[in-house]
Design a protein that fits this description.
The protein is mostly beta strands and about 150 residues long. It is about 15% helix and about 40% strand.
């Protein structure tokens, strides 16, 4: 099966607005019939509750072809230390954008994951943004979450 997904992104300021200590869940979001994205829902404080609408809906970047059969695609998750690490990397590098690049997991075959990278380049302007090197590259927990 061939699946055409998109690299997704948000501006760094939006990502850093995620409340400290939040877990973030990503859910499929349809923007129109041709655009599939991810919405980001952070937990509210320590309660584990969510708002009705996502805090951030990721924007569509370049096309990525996934050739895998079957493909398991569901909600993804970042734990509070991972959210903090990304926010710290944004502050330390001055990155302007947070990129979410789809791939299949090598640890969990056939499961989709998103590798999270930072860039100064606007993916709406530069189709292949240059990645800023950071100490640790994070991956959103493949669907369905393997550890909660």
């Amino acid at each position: 099966m061939i699946l055409n997904l998109n690299e997704l992104y948000t501006d760094a300021a939006s990502f850093t607005s995620i409340p400290n200590g939040s877990r973030v869940f990503f859910a499929l979001t349809y923007l129109d019939p041709d655009i599939v994205s991810l919405g980001l829902w952070p937990t509210r404080g320590g309660s584990g509750n969510f708002d009705n609408d996502p805090l951030i809906v990721l924007q569509k970047g370049r096309s990525i072809i996934i050739n895998e059969n079957p493909i398991y695609f569901g909600n993804l998750e970042l734990d509070p230390p991972e959210v903090k690490s990304i926010k710290d990397d944004i502050r330390q590098t001055g990155a302007a954008f947070v990129l979410f690049i789809p791939s299949t997991s090598s640890l969990y075959p056939h499961h989709m994951q998103y590798t999270i990278n930072l860039s100064m380049d606007d993916p709406a302007v530069k189709s292949t943004p240059e990645i800023i090197k950071v100490l640790a590259t994070l991956t959103a927990n493949p669907s369905p979450p393997k550890a909660i």
